[in-house]
Amino acid sequence: MTSHIAAIGWRKKRSGLRWLVCAGIVATFVGLPLAGLFLQAIQGSPGLWAHLISTILPAHLVDTLILLCGVGVVTTVVGTTTAWLVTAYAFPGRRILEWALLLPLAVPTYIVAYAYLDILHPIGSVQGAIRWWLGYSSPRQFRLPDVRSMTGCILLLGFVLYPYVYIPTRAMFVTQSANLIDAARTLGISRHGIFWNVALPLARPAVAVGVSLALMETLNDVGAAEFLGVRTLTVSIYTTWITRSDLPGASQIALLLLLIVVGLVALERWARRRQRYSADARRHRSLKPHCITGIKGMILFMLGFTPILIGFAAPALYLVTEALKRVRFAGLSPRLQHEAVNTISLAAIATLVTILLGVVIAYTNRLRPGAVSSWSYRLATMGYAAPGTVVAIGVLIVLASVDRFIDRTALEWFGLSTGLLIMGSGAALIYAYAMRFLAISAGGIDAGLSRISLSLDHASRTLGQSPAGTFRHVHLPLSKAAITAAGLLVFVDCVKELPATLLLRPLNVETFATHLYGEAARGTYEEASIAALAILLIGMAPVILLSRIGRETR
After folding, report:
1. Which string of b and e fits 109-127 if b means at least 16 CB within 10 Å?
2. pLDDT of residue 4
3. Which domains does the chain have, with CATH numbers?
């Protein structure tokens, strides 16, 4: 009997080790492209680095830093203001704004830039209406500032990415105790003073996290910056690789961009290193919003609706209008069907792979907590911090080497050339998607597993179930909602991802994102409107999910 129990214990321990080994393999696959990027960069690129330092790199680095600072300011102001508005005040339409303020998340930044290039064109309908109203007849007499500028890029990106600040900041405002607010009011502090002196300082950690995420998305952008004429490091990576066909040079710039990302993460953690806040749950009372009606209530609603109008409503209305024009004039293009199949197929396969890898990482972290599983989790999820162009270059370096090895082996053994076996099949793009969005999968699944009591694990193990059996019969049924939510978010992000798709897609394979990029670069906006609208509709799925989660939480 004792030997039988010992044998069962050994099998369970060995099974746990298998999960740990699998998690280590997943972490290695994520780390390989970054290691390959470093090795490629140190090979050097003759003459390029001196040329970049003397001509291109200083201007691109300055533009990148200016863009980051500008977007950081806009997202901070808009995100915190709207979060406080719908938390501290009750006015007509407030409940609509609570979820509608999330809608800009559904619009990729390159689609907003694409839409506003036509909406605010000097001879477009908007500027034409303004000139008519002012009594002018020609763009030479009056025209708005060109949207193709640093200011235009900062404003558009800021009004699209502010939900990254709005979501955590509003959650912090909602959970703040009203006792602190009441204490401040008894000291004679006004409601505006409470925001500046009590609520905002307590919400600084949430604001810092949201701003860091928004800035990472800004660094990942390549379409909006290129459309709007802003020279960022991300754009320089793309042009160095594609135009100059210089992979080592692009790798060196990518490493510089990765250092900026690491610096942003370190700055965010340093900014809140000494900030701690806790509330007494026994005496906790949520903040009661101040009721405002009449003209002031309408003004507050319009103030909260302005970011929605700029970041979602105006681009969405434009896309619907242009798509209807295109359908009425020439119908649906046959290529859209192929692009829909390519987009959905690649995103679905990548989502399945990413969810499976996320299950391995998250379940290992629960099954065998410790230093090894913790570091595997961190390494496996660090791909989300790397911009898509950086991930694409790293994946290309690794898989191109594998392709060359397979081709040489096939030539030596069979006298046949396999060519681009992996790169030409779409596997590289799926690899990049999985590496980039594994943090979403593992994080969502880990959050779902954390809500399951460990007593159920112990009960299952005493009944003789292995770790895999425990996951299949206990954890999987109880965490279906978390896995489904993570899968939905990963799928939508794969559909919207432009830089990695643009650089790693197989030859003659177009997706909605690459179609939109190509048409916008050529200036044929009507042709891309349907693809842009399809991406927008798909992107609304996680927004609906987030709004439902928010209502259930309340």
Report:
1. bbbbbbbbbbbbbbeeebb
2. 46
3. 1-36+332-522 (1.10.3720.10), 68-273+286-318 (1.10.3720.10)
